[in-house]
Amino acid sequence: MIAAPFGLQAWIDKHLPQALGAIGNKEVFKGSDFIFQIIKGPNARNDFHIDPWDEIFYQLKGHIFVHFIEEGREKRLRIEEGEVFILPKQVYHSPRRPPGSVGLVIERPRQPNELDGIAWFCPSCGNRLHQVDFWCDDIEKGLKDIIAAFNADLALRTCGKCGTVLPDPTTLDPWGPGGDEAAPAGAAR
Ligand SMILES: [Fe+2]
């Protein structure tokens, strides 16, 4: 049975009416050979995801920031409305989505032997605090329980090297003063 074409904007208006929590994503063609998901801001996360496959971003409304780890350092890029971007596989990345932003992210469904990772890094010294590898069989649900467990665990959030505590991002306003929006354009952090 072939489904009829439909307007993406109307689909977004119907399925993403408001903020969906820490990671708000909805798959458009669930069960197909592609993960074709719409993600709406705001989000509030400081975890880094690692995908066994490339990810393609297409920013539909507003801009987002993508933090990533390169050569052991946290860096940041900004994707403007209308821009496309490909994130190479196996790169630690952390998309930060301002309120009202809407983006498309296309991924590959994972086979049972293909694991994703989620990790956290010390904001002071870059030490990797914790990593969980998992099989991402449902992109809408896969990360949420793991992130909630980490945020609830102060010992895991405390850096063993320098003692800095990574904040629970759900207790902060990442779009307030000192957040991503206030950082200099293109700044590496
Ligand atoms: Fe540290």
Fold and architecture overview:
By secondary structure, the protein is mostly beta strands. It has one domain (11-177): Jelly Rolls. It is 11% helix and 32% strand. It is built from 3 helices and 11 strands. The chain has helices at residues 8-15, 144-151, 154-157; strands at 25-27, 35-40, 48-50, 55-61, 64-70, 73-79, 84-87, 93-96, 102-107, 116-121, 128-134. The strands form 3 sheets. It has a 5-stranded antiparallel β-sheet with strand order 1-2-9-4-7, with no helix packed on it. The structure holds fe (ii) ion. Residues 122, 124-125, 127, 159, 161-162, 164 line the site of fe (ii) ion (FE2).
How many structural domains does the protein architecture include?
1
By CATH, the superfamily comes out as Jelly Rolls
| Termini gap | 49 Å
Overall helicity: 10-25%
CATH topology: Jelly Rolls
What does the main sheet amount to?
5 strands, antiparallel
Low-confidence spans: pLDDT under 50, at least 5 residues? none
Structure summary, number of beta strands: 11
Mean pLDDT: 89
Round the Cα radius of gyration to an integer and report it: 17 Å
Succession of helices and strands: HEEEEEEEEEEEHH
Small molecules bound in the structure, each named once? fe (ii) ion
Q: Largest beta sheet: what is the strand line-up? A: 1-2-9-4-7
